[in-house]
Amino acid sequence: MSRSMVRLHHGPPNFQPPPQVQNYEVFEHTADIGLRIKGKDLVELFQNAGLAVFQVSSRRQYVKNKTHTDIIIKQKADNLDELLVNWLNELLSISAVKGIIFHNIKVRAIQDNALEALATGSSVENYRVNTEIKAATYHQLKIEQIDGAWTAEVILGV
Description:
Blueprint: E1 3-11, E2 24-29, E3 32-39, H1 42-57, E4 58-60, E5 68-76, H2 80-98, E6 100-111, E7 114-123, E8 127-129, E9 135-136, E10 142-146, E11 149-157
Antiparallel strand pairs: 1-5, 2-3, 3-11, 4-8, 5-7, 6-7, 9-11, 10-11
């Protein structure tokens, strides 16, 4: 069972983009994109996973539209695997419906297979889209904690 809630807030461009630290790597997968994501804890892992999806699929090119959109996203799932897949698919869905690319994601909390985050995006007009990602999948999905840090592998359908 999964539930999501989205609240939109349109605001001025008063954000500071995060430094471009690459906390993920792309791995080869037949016809799709594989991501291996790292984080010191679950909050950072989910935050990095969300950012990785948009960094892999698009590149900022222009500043045609300076409006930024803040969206509060809440997800609840039965387990951690479901939460990660639902989280990424919710970001992709909102991006497609609203015509925005997320460039800043702040996961506020993850507890009891529930997540709350603030995602900030700007118009797709400001980006060159390299690859259209359709969905995050359960195929070969892996989330594990090793030596206190977290890693995840997820396949993105294109």
